[in-house]
């Protein structure tokens, strides 16, 4: 009996090895998804692996931003890149410049069970070259939102009957709210990553775009009155900082901790932190009620910074046909399971998910769904996007100006100078 | 006499307190790692270990690739140590005991290479590793770290000090140079081998810059690289960061506490100062 | 057992065996040095040559470049960031080399006065940070100095009146990286100095004490001159080590704020691996190379003079 089983297993193994259909494809996957995002994505990967005995994803999460994109660039250059990775669409122009991505054909989309028309048009445009060649498959649209401490705002003029923010229609209104919170003992009433980096850029860009301002118009950085609008955006933040209404030099993690530690009454950050607060409210460790709304319109028009995560297949001459097919299978599968991703706060780029009833009932997504219409994407340029020269300018000029090391005017002027120099 | 003893006692006390302050960062990392995340950021934290919450350790161990990084660190560091010692002792023996053309030049090159800042070569070494197809492999991590001139120099000094009579005796017994080296010179200097081994191992284990450049995927990273480049944490993660740091440091800390005396000797010998 | 005396053999045989022995020695030497020489040539000498060669080209990190002569060096002369980096390297040397030596000397003198177990314990505590990986060191210090939640912030506030985000403040960043570095590497220096102190014969102190020398005089007349070779060794090793600063800066401040902690290796890394300028990065590396060679030769000379005095 024992011998027979052994024989049977051996035969099965031999046959399995000889037929390529049974061969397992191992896919190297890279992402930069920390936070609650990371947890959700790992769960998705595990689920995929369990469902697909023939494809195994082995995932790596690298440090977000510059470290990630440096590794991608270096690894791709030496042919050691992953088989599939997440990529920010704001960075697509830089990706084209660095030549790290491979085009994805319509036929390949079809093989993955997808078509361009399944996606929001804006995200497809953002994922394509100027002449329309798709270079990545969009996965979501993510924006900054305003998280707030509902418990603390209870009974104040800023919390409506429905539990949403209300009455914040100008910078002055916001300032009044923050001053009130400061008096209530919140040491840093509005927290965001104020040290520079992504958090500062998102805040600045939101304020710039709420004035109708543009970073780049016709190849010119901060042209015309965009300059004044940039100055004003920086000045608003600098004034808040001078009054102690926003934290001094808060690192990303600290900015989140300030809110969960009840030192901030409001927290402006990406939707990707939704799971963090969801999870800690669920296990009872948060200690207050929270919710998230679209960032209030405080200036001339509604606008909220936004970006997209997408899947991309890096340039790799050694990639086999099989691996590429497997990577496309993964991309298709992920889109069909993007409801779980929506649970991480994001708005899926895949329309069938967004149109589902399940999505319509998902909170707080449904409440801030309106922001999709006001999404302000980074300018499409090789100087912009995650870990781009614009980010350097944020660290070296905008953040220092917010903290009073130089004037808003100087910061904006120097930024224009530096970035314009890189445009040509 | 008693006054002097009291003074000595007080002096010892002060030095001990200073040493405890010196090591406080490690203590504080331990304290933090044993607390719950939300407590760390909400209460004003106390200075004492007042909570034994191992959830940060559990999460780090189950979520990170720490075991793989350990393996990479141990594997590459061991291979580096063995190759550096064996090639170093052979070369040092030849330099010390044999006459051959180019001997002076070789020795001068080895001594002069002391002055070269190795990181200045990293761009070229990276290009070389790429040409050899070794980026993101153990050998890619290992090969450029094999240049440890101090090993040759220290071995040579100690081999020089061995009396020639012992050598003649073995030679006349029909032993060759390899017999001499491995049966006589090395066994006479086991202490040096252990010391140089420890020093080489520690510096390979702790090297950050080169493995950081050459390991592109998570599965190839060594501990110092992995804990900074890979981010598996989420939300408020100070306890987890400290748990990760301490787990990463645990092997060297334990190793040092066990082999303390040898490590101390090793440092002194490697700098050419005999204790 | 007495060996057979070579003179017992006939003359001719001895001559032959001499040339045989010579050949055997050469062969053995070749075999013995071959592995080291191979590794040394391929992974050290060749890259050294390659960096020099690359610095005269416009090569990207991976791929061929064309010869551009001294263009990279000319560009370097006009690169403000490079001057900032170079200056920061020297500033860092200033902040670390002498302070760490002084601190190590004080610790070594104290520890060497202790006895037995106490000495072992104290030495262990002072040496322990040296065996830690750099990233562990920076993670712990970044947490201790965290602007919002760091345990050291109340201390900083007590001195300066308010908390300081040290790695985000242009005035604090380099000194704090220096503090972290000294904490991390100091144990090594302490050990060397203790070894040096142990080598000073006890009777010299006794003789000095009999002459009625105060502890202060004993230090300057006995300890200092006899310890000078070790002190100068520590200074030299530290100087070369600290010029190679990269890890701590990359991990703690990433060169910021406003490039106030940018150093030469950081710029080399950025040019090569982030901006894909292999040639220019090599030129930067060459400058560091030259600086370290010049400085070590100079310091060697200076220390020799200091020692003679």
From TrEMBL, chain A:
Broad class of the protein's primary localization: periplasm
Signal peptide: 1-23
Keywords on record: Signal, Sugar transport, Transport
Key word Zinc-finger present: no
A Pfam entry, by short name: SBP_bac_1
Entry GO CC: periplasmic space
Highest taxon of the lineage: Bacteria
Subcellular location: Periplasm
Stretches of the chain forming a coiled coil according to its record: none
UniProt similarity note: Belongs to the bacterial solute-binding protein 1 family.
Name of the featured protein: Multiple sugar transport system substrate-binding protein
Source organism of this protein record: Sagittula marina
UniProtKB/TrEMBL annotation, chain B:
GO biological process: transmembrane transport
Membrane topology: Multi-pass membrane protein
One Pfam family it belongs to: BPD_transp_1
CDD domains reported in the protein's UniProt record: TM_PBP2
GO CC annotations on file: plasma membrane
Subcellular location: Cell membrane
TM region positions: 9-30, 69-94, 106-126, 138-159, 180-205, 237-259
InterPro entries with a match to the protein in the record: MetI-like, MetI-like_sf
Domain ABC transmembrane type-1: 70-259
Domain of life, source organism: Bacteria
This protein's UniProt keywords: Cell membrane, Membrane, Sugar transport, Transmembrane, Transmembrane helix, Transport
Similarity comment: family membership: Belongs to the binding-protein-dependent transport system permease family.
Protein name: Multiple sugar transport system permease protein
Organism per entry: Sagittula marina
């Amino acid at each position: 009996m024992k011998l027979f089983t052994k024989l049977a297993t051996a035969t099965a193994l031999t046959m399995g090895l000889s037929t390529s259909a049974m061969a397992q494809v191992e896919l190297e996957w890279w992402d930069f998804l920390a936070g609650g995002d990371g947890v959700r994505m790992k769960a998705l990967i595990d689920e995929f692996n369990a469902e697909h005995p023939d494809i195994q994803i082995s995932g790596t999460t690298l440090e977000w931003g510059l470290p990630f994109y440096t590794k991608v660039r270096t690894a791709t250059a030496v042919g050691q890149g992953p088989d599939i990775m997440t990529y920010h669409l704001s960075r697509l122009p830089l990706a084209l410049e660095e030549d790290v991505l491979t085009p994805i054909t319509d036929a390949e989309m079809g093989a993955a069970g997808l078509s361009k028309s399944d996606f929001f048009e804006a995200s497809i445009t953002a994922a394509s070259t100027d002449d329309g060649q798709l270079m990545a498959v969009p996965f979501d649209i993510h924006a900054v939102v305003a998280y707030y401490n509902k418990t603390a705002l209870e009974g104040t003029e800023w919390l409506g009957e429905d539990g949403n923010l209300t009455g914040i229609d100008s910078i002055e209104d916001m300032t009044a709210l923050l001053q009130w919170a400061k008096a209530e003992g919140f040491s840093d009433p509005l927290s965001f990553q104020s040290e520079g980096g992504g958090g500062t850029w998102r805040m600045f860009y939101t304020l710039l775009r709420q004035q109708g301002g543009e970073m780049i118009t016709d190849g010119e950085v901060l042209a015309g009155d965009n300059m004044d609008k940039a100055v004003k955006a920086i000045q608003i933040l600098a004034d808040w900082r001078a009054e102690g209404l926003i934290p001094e030099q808060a690192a990303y993690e600290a900015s989140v901790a300030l809110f969960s530690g009840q030192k901030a009454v409001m927290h402006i950050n990406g939707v990707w932190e939704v799971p963090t607060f969801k999870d800690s409210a669920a296990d009872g460790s948060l200690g207050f009620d929270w919710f998230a709304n679209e960032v209030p319109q405080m200036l001339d028009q509604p606008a909220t910074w936004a970006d997209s995560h997408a899947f991309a297949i890096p340039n790799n001459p050694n990639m086999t046909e099989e691996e590429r097919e497997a990577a496309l299978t993964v991309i298709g599968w992920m889109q069909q399971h993007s409801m779980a991703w929506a649970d991480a706060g994001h708005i899926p780029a895949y329309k069938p998910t967004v149109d589902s009833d399940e999505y319509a009932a998902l909170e707080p997504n449904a409440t801030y769904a309106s922001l999709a219409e006001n999404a302000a994407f980074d300018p499409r340029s090789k100087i912009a996007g995650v870990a781009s020269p614009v980010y350097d300018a944020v660290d070296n000029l905008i953040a220092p100006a917010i903290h009073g090391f130089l004037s808003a005017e100087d910061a904006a002027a120097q930024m224009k100078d530096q970035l314009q120099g890189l445009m040509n | 006499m008693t006054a002097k003893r009291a003074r000595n006692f007080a002096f010892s006390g002060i030095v001990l307190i200073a040493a405890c302050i010196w090591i406080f960062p490690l203590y504080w990392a331990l304290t933090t790692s044993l607390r719950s995340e939300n407590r760390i950021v909400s209460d004003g934290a106390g200075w004492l270990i007042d909570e034994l919450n191992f959830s940060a350790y559990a999460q780090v161990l189950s979520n990170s690739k720490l075991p793989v990084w350990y393996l990479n660190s141990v594997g590459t560091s061991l291979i580096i140590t063995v190759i550096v010692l064996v090639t170093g002792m052979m070369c040092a023996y030849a330099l010390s005991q044999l006459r051959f053309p180019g001997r002076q030049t070789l020795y001068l090159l080895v001594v002069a290479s002391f002055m070269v800042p190795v990181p200045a070569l990293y761009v070229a070494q990276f290009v070389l590793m790429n040409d050899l197809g070794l980026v993101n492999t153990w050998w890619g991590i290992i090969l450029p770290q094999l240049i440890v001139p101090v090993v040759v120099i220290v071995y040579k000094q100690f081999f020089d000090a061995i009396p020639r009579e012992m050598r003649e005796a073995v030679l006349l017994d029909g032993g060759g140079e390899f017999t001499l080296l491995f049966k006589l010179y090395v066994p006479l200097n086991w202490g040096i081998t252990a010391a140089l081994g420890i020093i080489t191992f520690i510096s390979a284990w702790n090297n950050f810059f080169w493995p950081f450049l050459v390991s592109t995927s998570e599965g190839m990273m060594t501990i110092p690289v992995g804990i900074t480049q890979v981010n598996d944490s989420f939300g408020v993660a100070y306890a987890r960061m400290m748990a990760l740091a301490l787990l990463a440091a645990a092997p060297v800390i334990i190793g040092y506490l066990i082999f303390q005396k040898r490590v101390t000797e090793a440092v002194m010998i490697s700098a050419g100062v005999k204790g | 057992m007495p060996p057979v005396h070579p003179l017992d053999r006939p003359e001719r045989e001895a001559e032959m065996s001499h040339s045989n022995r010579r050949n055997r020695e050469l062969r053995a030497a070749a075999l013995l040095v071959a592995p080291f020489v191979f590794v040394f040539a391929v992974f050290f000498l060749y890259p050294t040559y390659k960096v020099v060669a690359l610095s005269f080209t416009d090569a990207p990190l991976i791929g061929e470049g064309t010869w551009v002569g001294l263009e990279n060096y000319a560009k370097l002369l006009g690169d403000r960031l490079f001057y900032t980096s170079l200056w920061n390297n020297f500033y860092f040397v200033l902040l670390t080399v002498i302070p760490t030596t002084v601190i190590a000397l004080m610790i070594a003198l104290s520890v060497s006065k202790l006895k037995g177990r106490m000495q072992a314990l104290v030495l262990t505590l002072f040496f322990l940070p040296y065996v830690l990986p750099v990233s562990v060191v920076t993670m712990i210090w970044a947490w201790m100095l965290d602007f919002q939640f760091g345990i050291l912030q109340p201390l900083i506030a007590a001195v300066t009146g308010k908390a300081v985000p040290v790695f985000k403040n242009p005035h604090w960043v380099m000194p704090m990286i220096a503090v972290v570095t000294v904490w991390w590497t100091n144990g090594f220096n302490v050990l060397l100095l203790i070894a040096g102190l142990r080598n000073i014969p006890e009777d010299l102190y006794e003789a000095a004490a009999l002459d009625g020398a105060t502890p202060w005089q004993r230090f300057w007349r006995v300890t200092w001159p006899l310890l000078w070779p070790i002190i100068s060794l520590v200074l030299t090793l530290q100087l070369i080590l600290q010029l190679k600063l990269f890890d701590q800066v990359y991990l703690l401040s990433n060169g910021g704020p406003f490039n106030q902690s940018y150093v030469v290796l950081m710029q080399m890394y950025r040019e090569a691996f982030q901006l894909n300028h292999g040639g220019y990065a090599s030129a930067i590396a060459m400058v560091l190379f030259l600086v370290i060679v010049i400085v070590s030769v100079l310091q060697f000379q200076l220390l020799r003079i200091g020692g003679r005095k």
